[in-house]
Fold this protein.
Amino acid sequence: MKISKEKREKISEQILFFLYSINPKLSFTSHIAKELARDEEFIKKILLELNNKKLILKINKNPKGRDYKKRLRWKLSEKTYQAYKSNQSSETQQLY
């Protein structure tokens, strides 16, 4: 099944917003897929695309410094976080 470019962008936005909402926590691919009610492999493809665009960061080591063999955790890049934060601030100011 083919998903349109527009829908992929909306799903990407949902992923970015989810990561923003849990920041500074990291999230596994499986948890993101569960939150968005999507297939893990599909979400992983989108996460890798976002990583290539430098919007999110891939964390492949656990807190003890050991490499994950099959899992990946994700977080927003600092640049993306600041963009979301400033956007949220301007929306809040418009409400008042």
Summary: The chain is about 60% helix and 10% strand. The CA atoms of residues 60 and 68 lie 5 Å apart.
